[in-house]
Amino acid sequence: MSGRRSTSDMVNKWKEHLYQFVNSGTLLVCAFLCAYPFYYIIVNSFSDPVESAKGVYFWPRGLTFSSYEQLLQIPSIFQSVFISVARTVVGTIITVFCSAFVGYMVTKKELLFRSGIYRFIIITMFFNSGLIPWYMLMKTLHLKNNFLLYVLPGAVSAFFIILVKTYIESLPASLEESAQIDGAGVWTIFVKIIFPLSLPIIACIAVFTAVGQWNSWADNFYLVTDSNLNTLQYLLYTNLKSNMADIMRTSASGTTQGAALASSGRVTPMSIRYAMTVITVIPIMLVYPFMQKYFVKGIMLGAVKG
User: Fold this and answer.
1) pTM, full prediction
2) Which ranges in the chain belong to alpha helices (H)?
3) CB 49, CB 275: distance < 8 Å
4) Using one digit for the tens of pLDDT, what is the confidence trace for 184-198?
5) How many beta carbons lie within 10 A of that of residue 247, not counting itself?
């Protein structure tokens, strides 16, 4: 019997080792498939444009910063960086605070028409008025060519309200009751008790909001004509379009695109696109690892209750 048990234990150990090996190998392959595309973009952004057109996969060829140098020569690019950073920081703070407060208020049974208000908030996730009504509303509110256009329309998000409401309902009700006995009001309870205890879900919606604000450019496209209010994403988009138009005119002269660019010492549209991608993604990638712990915890806790 002991011999059979030892054999069975050895088989189980081998199965466990095999499972760990296969599991680890599968996860490593998945991690590589997720990380390599961005690594490929970085490598090609630092490679010579002509070599990059031939194919660069692991190491830069003809190391150059020409694509980044051309981007830095774009007029008002630093002003656009400032606008993008400002809208990301201010917009994230406003959205997080407003959505958290509304999410807290719809948990209060004392709120009149609480159920109806919450249902109305959920309905907005399924129905959209469309682009033209949105444009007319923003124009009526005098948000055209106004920095507030970037931060006010998204101050309250139905999805974030649902997450915050669900999270707050998982907190012990005795905390709020104790504060009420001590004479604390709704605002005091929210700022000093509920908000600090909700940091995981707050960090979660902060990441969502920051990524959305940093990548947004459509509002700039439709409602902003003042160049001083252009965001970085919109500025790079318009520059890429003009750059590609120049390349098309060069190619129409009878030479191939790569040869024409090589002889003139210019960069290609693809190399510019690589550099643009790196510039727009790096800031978010630097912030996200510091928020990941709270992000994962918050999104899981916010999804426990329906």
Assistant:
1) 0.76
2) 2-45, 49-54, 66-72, 77-105, 114-123, 131-140, 158-169, 173-181, 186-189, 195-197, 199-215, 218-223, 232-251, 257-264, 269-301
3) no
4) 788 888 888 888 888
5) 19
